[in-house]
Amino acid sequence: MNENGGRFPLLAASFYAWISAIFAGAAFLDAKYARALQQVLDKSDRSIVFSQVSDVLLLVGFVVVLGALAAIASSWRHPATRNLLIASLIVLSFELTIPVLLALSLQDAQAADIGPWLRILPTSIASVLAFIGLYQLYAGGSHGH
């Protein structure tokens, strides 16, 4: 690893892999507890709680995107790792843009119980791709041989 750019690529890829896993877990918990909160809280309290959770998730999502960009940039000389991290960021971008692009359809999807999966699957797949990229970088299999 030292002959190909030091430890920063490994550190950046590690950070991105772990923060993406945390984001996937947060998306799962948000989807899981949103339904429970709907049954417990009245509408005005729900909107306050959902707004606060949304703010935290947006902040974590911003950190994930910055981590992805740093990991991609630092691992640019390692094609397999770079491509996996780019794929991870692309999949993650689906989760971040789906609510904007499909706002009306998501209300119907929430009612059909598929709405949470539209958030959980992309974040989980992005996290898995990030960890595979990290493994590629760590194992040295991404040196272009």
Q: Can you walk me through this structure?
A:
The protein is mostly helical and 145 residues long. It has one domain (2-139). It has 5 helices and no strands. The longest helix has 33 residues, at 8-40. It is elongated, with a radius of gyration of 17 Å.
In percent, how much strand structure appears in the residues? under 5%
Shape: elongated
Q: Helical amount among residues, as a percent range?
A: over 70%
Number of strands: 0
Secondary structural class: mainly alpha
Radius of gyration, Cα only, in angstroms? Answer: 17 Å
Integer average pLDDT: 82
Distance between the termini: 14 Å
Number of domains: 1
Major sheet characteristics: none
Tally of helical segments: 5
SSE ordering? HHHHH
Enumerate the spans where pLDDT stays under 50 for 5 or more consecutive residues: 141-145
Topology:
Blueprint: H1 8-40, H2 43-74, H3 79-101, H4 103-111, H5 115-139
Helix pairs in contact: 1-2, 1-5, 2-3, 3-5
State the main characteristics.
5 helices, about 140 residues, about 85% helix, mainly alpha
Short synopsis of the structure:
The chain has 145 residues and is an all-alpha fold. Helix content is 84%, strand content 0%.
